[in-house]
Amino acid sequence: MRTTIRTLSLLAAGAFAATSAVAQDYPNRQVNMVIPFPPGGNTDLMGRALQAELAKALGQSVVVINKGGAGGTLGVIEVSATRPDGYTIGLTPNNPLTAQPHVQKLPYSMDSFKYVCLSYYVPYVVMASPRAPFKTWQEFVTFSKAKNDNLIYASPGPGTQPHLGILSALSAIKAEGVHVPFTGAGPMSQALLAGTVHAMSESTAVAKASNLNVLATQTNERIPSLSNVPTMKELGFPSEAFSAGGLIVPAATPDAVVARLQKACQDAVASDGYKAATEKLNATARFLPGPEFRKMFDADSKANAEAVKKAGLVAK
Amino acid sequence: MELLDSIAVGFATALTVKNLAFCFVGAFVGTVVGVLPGLGPVATISLLLPFSFTMDVTSAVILMAGIFYGAQYGGSITAILVRIPGEASTVVTCLDGYAMARQGRAGAALGIAAFGSFLAGIGVTIALFLVGPAMSEFALAFGPAEYTALVLLGLLLVTQLSSGPQGKALLMVAFGLLLSTVGKDPIYGTERFTFGVFSLFDGLNMALLAMGLFGVSELLIIAEGGAAHAKPVAQPTSLRELLPNAADWRASRMPILRGTVLGFFLGLLPGGGATLSSFSSYVLERRLAKNPERFGQGAIEGVAGPESANNAAAQSSFVPLLSLGIPANAVMAVILGALLVQGIQPGPQLIAKRPDLFFGVIASMLIGNLMLIVLNVPLISIFVQLLRVPGSILAPLIIVFCVVGAYTLSNSVPEVIIMIGFGIAGYLMRKIDLDPAPLVLAFVLGNILETNFRQALLVGRGTLSLFHTRPIAAGLLLCCAALIAFQLYQAVHKRRSAAP
Predict the structure, then answer these.
(1) 8 Å CB contact of A181 and B43
(2) For residue B296, pLDDT beyond 50
(3) N or C terminus of chain B: which is more exposed, having fewer CB within 10 Å?
């Protein structure tokens, strides 16, 4: 049903293809927002929190389409191949754009898109199993550095954001460890709670959901909700890890449409409803205009390229 | 006394008009989406997610839980009537449920599935009130080594699933395991058998396998059989004749009880618990039956046990979610999201801080199951009428639903092609008398087995030490060895007694 409507409306859009005219009265119908992860995950919740406010700001309904799979790349591929008219946009975190292209062969690159706006930021923290042989940051460092395969750490799969997060932390303290990937967040939290693995890097939401001990935050400034936990920078091991996302459109999208979307995004991110929702999810509502958003992802991509190479995850 | 308090808090929460309404809507919507192949509870609950942001959190979870167990029941309706399992946990219901429907006993199968689920639901609710919070430790006792051993035991049971020769079942298990290796390597991310098709990166989807091998293949058989095969099967019309009779009840009593216990424990385990519970219940009943050859030919125990087990597992999977923040399956992951959005942190403190939420949800399950019975038993006579529709009309309609369902899984076309491919494969397998059930179950278990075995090796730093130092893992492996030894003994014994 939804697809029929979409197909019909695409045909209708094609019929009067004078781009400038289309761009001027954009948006005059429903906008589809592709989320490249399955429902219930962090990206999905961030997208759904933005959905209502974005619809208000655009004056048109915004429909979420979850297209998960292959580390978020399937959904991003869909956005890259869509008609560049602003009626199908993507809400993606950094990983599918800044990490996955280094890990697997993909039909898109950072340059396949125009960057509309950043809409949220979720810092990562290093957390320990309640049954781990360390309780504090200092003990964690000593334990991890004592032997190369002393530390066992979890991730939801090679090349995922939590994997890159812990790699960044370990690289900062110059330690190594045994990587044990799990299939998703549930089994990973279970393994940490049960003491099967010692540590992982994830968002504070995960730490709170399973009541896990946070050793340090991978940020430059302290996280307000965790004001008693030191940052890795303070501890003398600077490491930054985060999941941050925003809206992207295909590179060929007219600038007028991108500008309209950016304005709507700014209003939505500034709204009280969105701020309240993100706060509950232990994320930060953060707006960055397109160019700065792109700059942030470029820097992230560069850092990931090195980390991925070092970990031996590079695409053939 | 504490127990009575919990019950009082639970029912005081669940019995408000608002929560009763949400419970009813959830159970009803769940049944409907369970009936429609492909449109599963995950998709439905995620559609409701934005609305839950502003709802009272207990009501939201009651609504979502209702959809979840409603869909479990709805899925068994299609499994019984048209041989389409919506989820891995209803695969075994196809075996005897559909056979019963072809014999004109669809009503009895649907009835026992409904009552079995209901009784299992009551059993689990009581168990959760009694020991719920304490059971969370059970989930933590299972690490990679334990899962590996448990799944190994499961695979041995799968070979006992079909009544045909063991060799054929083993062949199907091998194929299922092979199919489970498609997609990215779970540890290193290397692509395996993907042929550059992005839809295959995360492996094959179980729902596509099940819809193709069971549903589409059956429709092809109907199409081929022409008028004779497409003839509707006569079903009794009065509700009284439709429902399970006294003999059915006698046969089903113990399977329901055993299924409930199995489902309760396995449901506490994240990842595959519900699936394991339904087919281990099936195998258990077949083992215990006086004449196991009836299984697959329409034995009501083969419906009663697994259906009770998967409903029990669906409900007990809320315990690891609420008390540990561990989602046991995709539905639980969405519900976890809804909790987090509301600022509720699941965890050991949740029961102390929000007893109304924890016990309210548990009490609502009891009420929801009662509503499902009230809702569905009168509907059985209507569902059964569906079988009066001639195959020439029903079959194309079902194909359409399957295609739509396959497409909506991830909004893409390759999924549809994969499902039809498996439909044709299933058709050919039927022609040479190969049972698809062991294949589908081995496929599900294969994924769990590979990931956990390799995790166990990593955690053991390259050694098998976890398997003999952890008592539960070692115990389960001993059970596997005993099972193999028993089968060898039986085979040798049979051969000896056959020879003069």
Answers:
(1) no
(2) yes
(3) C
The answer to whether A156 and A181 have CB atoms below 8 angstroms apart is yes
Residue A197: which of A134, A124, A122 has the closest Cα?
Answer: A134
Interchain CB distance below 8 Å, A187 and B46: no
Residues in a beta bridge with A153: A179, A199
Do A123-226 and A2-121+243-311 have the same topology in CATH?
Answer: yes
- How do the domains of chain A map onto residue ranges? 2-121+243-311, 123-226
How many angstroms away from the CA of A114 is the closest CA of chain B?
23
Most confident of A39-53, A88-102, B339-353, B433-447: A88-102
Could you please state the CATH topology (level 3) that the domain comprising A123-226 is classified under. D-Maltodextrin-Binding Protein; domain 2 (3.40.190)
Who's near B356: CB < 8 A, 6+ residues apart? B9, B10, B12, B13, B58
State the pLDDT at residue A12: 47
pLDDT of A267 reads: 95
Rounded to an integer, the average pLDDT of B412-440 is 90
Residue numbers in A near B274 (CB within 8 A): none
Give how far Cα A236 sits from Cα of A122, A230, A232, Å: 22, 10, 6
In whole angstroms, what is the distance from residue A280 CA to residue A274 CA? 10
Q: Please answer yes or no on whether B325 and A209 come within 8 Å at the CB atom.
A: yes
pLDDT digits (tens, 9 = 90+) for B440-456: 888 888 888 998 999 99
Lowest mean pLDDT, pick from A196-210, B32-46, B301-315, B427-441: B32-46
Place of tokens 């504070």: A204
> Is residue A182 classed as helix, strand or coil in its secondary structure?
coil
CA angle, B468 then B469 then B473, to 5°: 60
Q: pLDDT value at position B14?
A: 81
- Output the six-digit token pair for B332: 């639980």
Pairing status of strand A113-128 against strand A284-289: antiparallel
Burial A99-128 (b: 16+ CB within 10 A, else e): bbbbbbebebeeebbbbbbbbbbbbbbbbb
pLDDT one-digit tens code per residue, B318-359 = 888 887 777 777 788 888 888 877 777 777 677 777 888 888
Residue B334 has its nearest CB partner, among A39, A209, A281, at A39
Cβ neighbourhood burial of B51 (10 Å; 0-12, 13-18, 19+) = exposed
Cα–Cα distance, A230 to A125 (Å, whole number) = 10
DSSP B292: G
User: Which residue do the tokens 């589809």 mark?
Assistant: A32
So what's the pLDDT on residue B426? Answer: 93
Residue A128's φ and ψ, nearest 5 degrees, are -115, 155
Q: In terms of DSSP H, where are the helices of B189-270?
A: 206-210, 217-230, 239-242, 246-267
A2-121+243-311 is classed CATH 3.40.190.150: yes
C-alpha–C-alpha distance, residues B330 and B337, integer Å: 11
The full set of domain ranges for chain B reads 2-498
